[in-house]
Design a protein that fits this description.
This protein is an alpha+beta fold and 622 residues long. It folds into 5 domains: 88 residues, 3-Layer(aba) Sandwich (GIY-YIG endonuclease); 141 residues, no CATH class; 113 residues, 2-Layer Sandwich (Nucleotidyltransferase, domain 5); 155 residues, UvrC, RNAse H endonuclease domain (Nucleotidyltransferase, domain 5); 58 residues, DNA polymerase, domain 1 (Orthogonal Bundle), CATH 1.10.150.20. 45% of the residues lie in helices and 18% in strands. The chain has 20 helices and 20 strands. The strands form 4 sheets. Strands 13, 14, 15, 16, 17, 18, 19 and 20 form an 8-stranded mixed β-sheet that branches. A 6-stranded mixed β-sheet has the order 4-10-9-8-11-12, with helices on both faces. Strands 2-1-3 form a 3-stranded antiparallel β-sheet. β1 and β2 form a beta hairpin. α5 runs antiparallel to α9. It is flat and about 85 Å long. The N and C termini lie far apart (93 Å). 29% of the residues are buried.
């Protein structure tokens, strides 16, 4: 225990008031957060007899070095503060919600003169209209895409009418997918009429839109404008699809509830939630909870409800659970205040509701079982595979593995790649690319010598001067090749005074991995083992990363050589074109309007680019 903190003395000072308490270990870390109606009674209970205490509480108390508390005006205030502190500190002995999922809304900024319609992850009190939440982000994006096609509303962030006429209209205007209020091409009233139609659509009223599209399709067909008729037909199909698929949630609905069930196995728990809206099962989702061994379902459910509904912007009329929870009444009051309407927590007793609860529990058990099996397989494919490699080459404690490869297609500008695997899984943030500077032509050994030298010289400097790009060294280096490549790596390390094991990944005549080369000896490996599969993945990843980088350079150089010949295209415009178009095919396929929509271009300069790229088209056709 801390010498300056006498727990017995501090327990005597506890007030008989509501509040939140934080338990700390000897390192000062918050290991548990709780709330109390009377701090004096609740906190004392932890330090009394072990009788009737769970193993989790006993273990937690053994790790308490000191505690602190915050007095609140009410138990409700304590509940809210407890939720916030748990989210902030993520204490070890609190049952924690592992997932950070959120459901999207569609936001209509009706408070703006020219409103926008877009996806939002939060619902704020900002005078906008919100629709949702939706259980599928894809469904939201599909709906938004349809709305922009139908009503041609803006997607930009320009402040209108302040910014009207200051900039050219964006590409959406040229593609006839925006009415361009930024150029004054539409009145406020005309634009507002389309927003009104959108609000009806999002409220579930599709009749007017369907009728309008059918009328326009028929008129185009009568006028023999078949392409236009096909366009309206496709829009009709999209509207019907969205109308059937998209379920909109109305906060005033009477029959709306979340059905919450959980399954527990050891330290792992899964909470399954069914979302029922307007009497229909709208969707479902599951959430992982981390808990101590022996935690009861009721505690898991209570912690889930506190943590999940503290963060989600939408709260239904009813929460249905399968276990009695201790703070049900207080949570009801809290969520009722948060929701603005009455919320009830109920336990079903009979009929269809019981069957739905049983179904949710069955789903939770299945997901937990599947996840444990999945985790077991992943463990075999990662740490298990690393252990097999350790046993093969006689090295213990391998965590970080680095592999290197060289790419030089037809002698063009050699490049090197470095990929990193930690605990058998790729760590892509640590991947590095190298452009070969000192070697001309396809000399893999000399190129590899340069790459390794630069990697570890840079690492040594960072270890002395500070830095994090190369400072961490591997436990083993995996070279794509046999004796020659291994000796190149060993020579570089010896010159730098580094002692890092180097292992070659040897391939046969058909370019397939056949074994490992270590300490001047080739070690065969079982082709069906997880260790073999990991080595293959490392080789393939190093090769893929090098090839991708090489092709990217080749493409950029090809574009550069062409763009340099175009009149009126200097370095600034060249960079702008290379940012917009990933290759020459994409640039050639672009229209004058596409090119002119880039900030650095106007219509004349765009026409020059277009004419240059298509100057041979007429000759080819002739």
């Amino acid at each position: 225990m801390s010498k300056t903190f006498d727990i017995d003395e501090e327990l005597k000072k506890l007030p008989a008031q509501p509040g939140v308490y934080l338990m700390h270990n000897e390192l000062g870390e918050v290991i548990y957060v709780g709330k109390a109606i009377k701090l004096k009674n609740r906190v004392r209970q932890y330090f009394q007899s072990k009788k009737n205490k769970t193993a989790k509480i006993v273990k937690m108390v053994e790790n308490i070095d000191w505690f602190e508390y915050i007095i609140t005006d009410s138990e409700m205030e304590a509940l809210v503060l407890e939720c916030n502190l748990i989210k902030e500190y993520r204490p070890r002995y609190n049952t924690m919600l592992m997932d950070d999922k959120g459901y999207p809304f569609i936001r209509v900024t009706v408070n703006e003169m020219y409103p926008r319609v877009y996806l939002s992850r939060t619902m704020k009190k900002d005078n906008s209209r919100y629709f949702g939440p939706y259980t599928s982000s894809y469904a939201v994006k599909e709906t938004l895409e349809l709305l922009h096609k139908l009503f041609k509303i803006r997607t930009c962030n320009r402040v209108l009418p302040r910014d009207c006429g200051k900039e050219r209209p964006c590409l959406n205007f040229h593609m006839e997918q925006c009415m361009a209020p930024c150029r004054g091409c539409v009145t406020k009233e005309e634009y507002g009429a389309n927003i009104d139609k959108i609000l009806k659509f999002l409220s579930g009223d599709f009749k007017e839109i369907l009728s309008d599209l059918e009328e326009k399709m028929q008129l185009a067909s009568d006028n023999l404008e078949f392409e236009e008729a096909i366009r309206y037909r496709d829009l009709l199909t999209s509207v019907r699809h969205v109308a059937e698929k998209q379920k909109i949630t109305d906060s005033g609905a009477q029959d709306e509830r979340d059905i919450i069930a959980c399954a527990v196995l050891g330290r792992d728990a899964v909470v399954q939630v069914f979302f029922v809206r307007d009497g229909k099962l709208l969707g479902r989702d599951h959430y992982h909870m981390e808990c101590e061994e022996g935690t009861k379902k009721a505690e898991i459910l209570e912690n889930f409800i506190k943590q999940y509904y503290a963060g989600t912007p939408y709260i239904p009329r009813e929460l249905m659970i399968g276990e009695e929870i201790a703070d049900a009444e207080m949570i009801e009051r809290w969520l009722t205040a948060k929701r603005g309407h009455k919320l009830s927590i109920v336990i079903p007793k009979k009929g269809e509701k019981v069957r739905l609860m049983e179904l949710a529990e069955t789903n939770a058990k299945n997901i937990l079982k599947q996840d444990r099996e999945k985790n077991r397989r992943q463990e075999q494919q990662t740490r298990g595979a690393v252990k097999e490699i350790e046993d093969l080459i006689g090295i213990n404690g391998i965590v970080r593995m680095e592999a290197f490869d060289i790419s030089n297609i037809s002698g063009f500008e050699s490049v090197g790649s470095m990929v990193v695997f930690e605990n058998g899984a790729p760590k892509k943030n640590d991947y590095r690319k190298f452009r070969i500077r000192t070697v001309s032509g396809p000399d893999d050994y000399a190129s590899m010598q340069e790459v390794l030298g630069r990697r570890f010289e840079h690492g040594l400097r960072e270890q002395e001067e500070g830095g994090d790009k190369f400072a961490v060294f591997p436990d083993v280096i995996m070279m794509d090749g046999g004796k020659g490549q291994v000796h190149v790596a060993e020579q570089v390390l010896e010159e730098l005074g580094l002692d890092i094991p180097v292992c070659g990944m040897v391939k046969d005549d058909h370019h397939n991995t056949r074994g490992l080369y270590y300490h001047d000896e080739e070690i065969p490996i079982d082709r069906h083992s997880e260790g073999f599969h990991l080595i293959t993945r490392i080789q393939d990843e190093a090769h893929r990363f090098a090839i991708t980088y090489h092709r990217g350079l080749h493409t950029r150089n090809s574009i550069h050589s062409v763009l340099a010949e175009i009149p009126g295209v200097g370095p600034k415009r060249e960079k702008a074109l290379m940012r917009r178009f990933e290759n020459m095919d994409a640039l050639r396929a672009a229209s004058v309007e596409d090119i002119a929509s880039i900030d650095e271009f106007n219509i004349r300069s765009a026409e020059q680019v277009y004419e240059f790229l298509h100057k041979n088209d007429a000759k080819t056709e002739g």
